[in-house]
Structure formats: structure tokens, C-alpha cells
Amino acid sequence: MAPIVRIPVISLYSRLIVPIQGLLGDGVMEELSEQVSRRIVSDGATGLIIDVSAVDVMDSYVTRVVRDLALTARLMGVDTVVSGLQANVAITLVEMGLELPGVATTLNLERALEHLDELHDERDQRRAWSEAPHGDS
């Protein structure tokens, strides 16, 4: 009997971090999508990082699930970053014509956290400016 594979969903400062390791089966990826969607709501997440630094190969199915997960999170108002794409994986994705439209990518997890912080700082600044009283010009 094959061991049950689960991908952890880590909550850290209103962000969810999903470390994907290796090539996973369809059932695991479907369960991950459902789990992340539930956790976005239950944790009140404002950011999602999908870390693929341990993935040597991303087939079209895994790429589609990552893309769909990112798009779902965006529709739920959550900024999403894919971190750790290895060079050979990125090249393969381009060669296969697979895209992650509207999804930010970073070299590593640290930069992904920094990117989400920057996005949220910009949003807070815009909100503060729009709520501040403005004199007539």
C-alpha cells in the first residue's frame, strides 16, 4: 500500500505557504486545491506562496493546478507568488507554452515574503491616501 502523501499548508503572519515537493499525483493536487481554498477563508489569509523549489519537473497537470490555485486565490482577494522555480523547470514551461498569467514569481521563499510585504505596504499607502482629507485646489 502506497503511503498517503499530504502537502502541508503553513500559516505565517496572515500568509499561507505551500511547499510542494516532487511530482505528485492528481488526487494529492486536487486535495491541495480544496485545502488551500478552505484555509484562505478560515485563516483570513492575505497572501499565498506556492514554493516549488523542491520540484525538479512540473508537468502540464501540476502547472495547471498551480495556475488555477493562484487564480482562485486572486479571485478570493489573496495575492499569490510562486517561489523557487528552477531554471530547467522555467525553460520547460516556456518551451511547452505554459504560462502563469497574473502570478508573481520569485527566486526563493524569502523574496516571496518580501514581495507580499511590498504589495501590502503599497495597498496600505493607497488606502491611507484615499481616506486622507484633500484640500480643494
Describe this structure in words.
- The chain contains four helices and five strands; from the N terminus they run ββαβαβαβα.
- It has helices at about 25-45, 60-75, 85-95, 110-130; strands spanning about 10, 15-20, 45-50, 80-85, 105.
- The chain is α/β, with parallel strands linked by helices and about 140 residues long.
Structural class: alpha/beta
CATH superfamily: STAS domain
Radius of gyration over C-alpha positions, nearest whole angstrom: 17 Å
| Number of DSSP-assigned strands | 5
| CATH architectural arrangement | 2-Layer Sandwich
Instruction: Please give the largest β-sheet.
Output: 5 strands, mixed
Q: Give the low-pLDDT segments.
A: none
Q: What layout of secondary structure does this protein have?
A:
Layout: E1 10-12, E2 15-19, H1 26-43, E3 47-51, H2 60-75, E4 79-83, H3 87-95, E5 104-106, H4 109-131
Parallel strand pairs: 2-3, 3-4, 4-5
Antiparallel strand pairs: 1-2
